[in-house]
TrEMBL record:
NCBIfam families: asnS, PRK03932.1. Its EC number is 6.1.1.22. It comes from Oceanimonas doudoroffii. Residues 137-454 form the Aminoacyl-transfer RNA synthetases class-II family profile domain. Signal peptide: none annotated. Keywords: Aminoacyl-tRNA synthetase, ATP-binding, Cytoplasm, Ligase, Nucleotide-binding, Protein biosynthesis. One of its GO terms (cellular component) is cytoplasm. This is Asparagine--tRNA ligase.
């Protein structure tokens, strides 16, 4: 078995004979007749210095022709390194070239720093860069920490469907799923596309959220969460929006808004602690790369108490702010990202949980408060990124839910199964959705969700 570079750092010592496999970052030849190859395999931030003596039989023919991107298997002995970068290096006894780069001038990932926009145009090769390698390891660390956290708290992970007929957020931002031939679709007598002739016999879409299904499982198994891809045909070209993103959605029976807000805070803290403990190597690199001190950013989120305020109070603070916002602030208006950033970065200088929003700017399923004007909703806002979590206590009273659906002109039949949950042993319940890419963008300091997912989907961009 070959050793990963991570294992070499963690387990091996001087004198060990090892085999490593990876890709060449750089090659430098010294006048004294050795070549230094910087080899990486993605198992950790660090690469391995491989020293190749010129007496290897393929030295002239192959080693001296190695370029960035070639893949290698190297056998040799670990020796003390004289370089400052590392304590151990590998003295090669055998270098086997697994794959050549056929035209080195055309290899898009040169060792110099490329712009993030350029890297996106080569999304299949960008994980070979330091920066996207670090993001991938941190995304993995965050995902594992989320599963670990919920498992320790007794939550069950449930799979929610990707294909659905219900629009959870009611915002009409759904991608249609269909087997119809849209060049020449079947039409009904009114000339409308006849979805009864479609695979599912009705119009179906890619889900915008697993919440409605998670509610059904919470109202049987008490504490559950979904963690999977969700889709929004939202035509916004911003650093916070993707057409395909991953959402983590816990849902808890016999629970209310305040308990959900506490759960959100402890989850975010657990994630930050895990990244600090497990990915210091990548945080060090990304801090330098982004110019943000990511250690103190995460440390703050992990230790600082979040501010909890009502929407009404947040609006009062914004109205008193001595600055002109692009979007006007008044009771009833949704908070825009500039408002969110003002609250977290200027006013409180802390993460803020805003609760109890006007019902007219929130989704149909949120519990109506006693004032009849607001719903038990919350948004968790983080400094530097804004909304990272959205959640609520759900309306568990069938008559109130029905009245709200009527008010919004929704077709009750489409939500029969969801309404039925309220007829058979209904309970107060609450939950939220955490956008994984917003969390990754925040933790890595890159601030753009396009860097936080391996192959980003945005308007007019679904290549790779
Ligand atoms: O606030 P949202 O729309 O809430 C829901 O979908 C609820 N059904 C969640 C629940 O209560 N179970 O989305 C939740 C989070 C946002 O706070 C944001 O972090 C992320 O999902 N998000 C997006 N991330 C990337 N691209 C987009 N287009 C996103 N839309 C939402
Ligand atoms: Mg939201």
């Amino acid at each position: 078995m070959h050793s990963s570079i991570f294992n070499i750092q963690a387990k091996h010592k001087r004198g060990d004979l090892v085999t490593v496999k990876g890709w060449v970052r750089t090659r430098r030849d010294s006048k004294s007749g050795v070549s230094f190859i910087n080899l990486y395999d993605g198992s950790c931030f660090d690469s391995l210095q491989v020293v190749v003596p010129d007496n290897l039989e393929n030295y002239q023919e192959e080693v001296l022709k190695l370029t960035t991107g070639c893949s290698l298997m190297v056998k040799g002995e670990l020796v003390k390194s004289l370089g400052k970068q590392q304590s151990l290096e590998l003295r090669a006894e055998e270098v086997l070239v697994v794959g050549w780069v056929d035209d080195p001038d055309s290899y898009p990932m040169s060792p110099k720093r490329h712009s993030l926009e350029y890297l996106r145009e080569h999304a299949h090769l960008r994980p070979r860069t330091n920066v996207i390698g670090s993001v991938a390891r941190i995304r993995n660390c965050i995902s594992q920490a989320i599963h670990r956290y919920f498992n320790e708290q007794g939550f069950l992970w449930v799979a929610s469907p990707i294909i659905t007929a219900s629009d959870c957020e009611g915002a009409g931002q759904m991608f249609r799923v269909s087997t119809l031939d849209f060049q020449d679709p079947a039409r009904d007598e009114h000339g409308k596309v006849d979805f009864e002739k479609d695979f599912f016999g009705k119009e179906t879409f890619l889900t915008v959220s697993g919440q409605l299904n998670a509610e059904a499982y919470a109202c049987a198994l008490s504490k559950v969460y979904t963690f999977g891809p969700t889709f929004r045909a939202e035509n916004s070209n911003t650093s916070r929006h993707l057409a395909e993103f991953w959402m983590v959605e816990p849902e808890v029976a016999f629970s209310d808004l305040n308990e959900s807000a506490e759960l959100a805070e402890t989850l975010l803290k657990a994630i930050c602690r895990a990244v600090l403990a497990e990915r210091a190597d990548d945080l060090r690199f990304l801090s330098e790369y982004s110019g943000e001190d990511l250690f103190s950013r995460l440390d703050q989120l992990a230790t600082m108490s979040f501010v909890h305020i009502d929407y009404t109070e947040a609006v009062a603070i914004l109205e008193q702010a001595e600055r002109d916002f692009e979007f006007p602030v008044f009771w009833g208006a949704d908070l825009s990202s500039e408002h969110e950033r003002y609250l977290t970065e200027q006013h409180f200088k802390a993460p803020v949980i805003v609760k109890n929003y006007p019902k007219d700017i929130k989704s149909f399923y949120m519990k109506l408060n006693d004032d009849g004007k607001t719903v038990a909703a919350m948004d968790v806002l983080a400094p530097g990124i804004g909304e990272i979590i959205g959640g609520s206590q759900r309306e568990h009273r069938l008559d109130v839910l029905d009245a709200r659906m009527d008010e919004l002109g929704m077709n009750q039949e489409d939500y029969d199964w969801y309404r039925e949950l309220r007829r058979y042993g209904t309970v107060p319940h609450a939950g939220f959705g955490l956008g994984l890419e917003r969390m990754v963008a925040y933790v890595t300091g890159l601030g753009n969700v396009r860097e936080a997912i391996p192959f980003p989907r945005t308007p007019r961009n679904a290549s790779f």
